[in-house]
Design goal:
- The structure is a single chain.
- By secondary structure, this protein is of the alpha/beta class.
- It has helices at 22-40, 57-70, 72-77, 90-97, 119-124, 146-154, 164-168, 181-186, 198-208, 228-249, 254-279, 290-313; strands at 8-13, 48-53, 79-84, 105-110, 113-115, 134-141, 176-180, 213-222.
- It has an 8-stranded mixed sheet with strand order 3-2-1-4-7-6-8-5, with helices on both faces.
- Strand 1 (8-13), helix 1 (22-40) and strand 2 (48-53) form a beta-alpha-beta unit.
Length: 329
Amino acid sequence: MPLNSLSYCLILEMENARSVDLEEVSVGLTALAREIGAVSSLGFARPQVVFSHGGDDADTLLLRSNIASAASQLEQVADLIFAACPGGRYYDLKNNGIPATDGDVVIFTDSDTVVESGWLSAMLGPFQDPATVAVNGYTYLYYDDFMSRTFALIWFFPMAQKDMRFALKRAINANNVAFRRDWIANHPFPENNGFKVSCTLLMRALERDGHKLVSANARVYHHPPRGWRFFRWRALVTGRDADRKFRELGSPHRGRRIAKSLSRWLTMSWRTTRRVVRHARQTGMPVWQIPMSLLVGLAFYSLAFWGQFSLAVGLVHDEIEVLPDFAGG
């Protein structure tokens, strides 16, 4: 079957749009329109783009108006659909968009990511093989100051360049991943109290089903997180999510969970040190800032350790993680 006989659709979750301004969202949507136009010129059918948001029907009207003003080009190349999921969290919004689609392939991206040239064709290419069920793209953090450079160095995304080995170790990038629709419709992102746990659980479901996650050089950049309040919250929730993942996929035994928090602290401290030393100059970081960046990175994973340890020992309850108003993805 020729590749361009595949139909495809895209789902954009709009939770993260709360943390970026309309101008930044416009950059992402304009780039998306460019990519859709490029593959349409190759014979692909006009796709659906589903905007899944956590508001109500009244918010849908406002969102539709904002999208029309932010990226009018998108309406020219795609059919826009708006799907409300009142109170929905990140993965709820992704799942909420699936029933609104009808393409052979469903591509998930986010409101705070920007696709690079060639992204869409790279994402669709592996589906020419009928055995391909899931394709994972390459996501990295954009940086423009000290803190965003530090986040890029210590984050769970690979660096923009010279980091393919780390990129290939990535689990599902929920902001840059595609599935055969018939598979994802029957295997939606699993429910979990965690903030970013469901993509790991979905990865395991894919493996249990006998499928391989295909990596593609379909590149997007993610707007960097901002602010010290976000830094503290994201570090703690990263630790709590690590405990949730280990409890689901490793062992529910409290002693093993505690031991895992200690071993992960050591592992992430070493990884942070290695990555800051190896990649700091690549970001344009001045030499004198590198020790400071390393200290910030080690502080992040020390807070993450405390989040993981405190949940493992029962100092905090396993409550649903909700994105704070001051923070983004």
